[in-house]
Amino acid sequence: MVNYLTQIMDGSRINILAALVSFGLTFLVIELFRSKLPQDHGRQFAVNGALSKGKARGAGLLFVLCMALCAMAFTPFSVELLIYMLLLIASMLSGYLDDASDKPWNEYKKGLIDFIIAVVAGTTYLYFNGTSVHFLAWSFELPYMVYLVLAIILIWVAINVVNCTDGVDGLSGVMSLITMGTFLLAFREELGSFGTVVVVVMASVGAYLWRNASPSSVMMGDAGSRALGFFVALLSMKSGHPFAFVLAALVFILDGGLGILKISLKRFLKIWILKNVRTPLHDHARKNCGWSDAQVVIRFALLQVLVSAVLLLLTGC
User: Fold this and answer.
1) pLDDT at residue 51, as a whole number
2) DSSP run (H or E) holding 141
3) What is the C-alpha to C-alpha distance for residues 193 and 50, in angstroms, rounded to an integer?
4) Where on the phi/psi map is residue 54: left (φ > 0), alpha (ψ -120 to 50), or beta?
5) How would you write 253-310 as a 3-class SS string?
6) pTM attached to this predicted model
7) What CA–CA distance (Å, rounded) separates 66 from 71?
8) How far is CA 22 from the centre of its chain?
9) Cβ distance 237 to 127 under 8 Å?
10) Mean pLDDT across the chain, nearest whole number?
């Protein structure tokens, strides 16, 4: 794996330059403008939610704009990439406007926005890439409408599970880096020039983590988490292996997804599951298991690294 990573970096100086510029620009922009961001009001029902009160919130506005600019600057221009970057910014703005609002947006409103973004992204992907899908050693074609429906579900789920995971300093950022790195290692050839976009995004997230490491002074807010969720879903489709999302983002799915499932079953079907488990799971780990924030980040990251290693073995990396 180390040799493979070395080949990646040695084989593309543009990726190294793109990473350095993206990291430097994001770091500078956050330092210059973090005082202009809205302040967090604290989260009433989250574990240690009051500790976030007064911190700069919505840093996703800054690093998403930086990553979109660098992505367009360091990769060959294409209409497809331009649409994706506009959708990435749209995902960010939907979260940022919610972050900046005195009254949180209705969850149905946010869900509708996510759905519209997913439809446009799925349609764009299929127009430029077709309906071919790879699953381990097998390749096959899906009917257009089947792929579109699955793409919409994938994007909507990814946006929301990553958003739900953003409740511990550094957690969403670190988990995003591992998930994106997994796709880059496993499917570099399939990604082609889009691999440079992945490098840019990872570098930008890394710069954000400088200020988000516990105890944080800056938080990405919905502006960052929703955009990262969108990008991870897009990345899984661009790799040609969308089903790999299940393993490459398994901790995201469990941490954020179980809470969504629990609430949805209770609200719509009057079925109450996981009665003794707090969701998101990072809150259960902190409140019920007594883990510190640092322990949550490191242990969740280690679990995802192990699962990602299984994926790399299955794909013959």
Assistant:
1) 56
2) strand 138-141
3) 43
4) left
5) HHHHHHHHHHHHHHHHHCCCCCCCCCCCHHHHHHHCCCCCHHHHHHHHHHHHHHHHHH
6) 0.92
7) 8
8) 17
9) no
10) 91
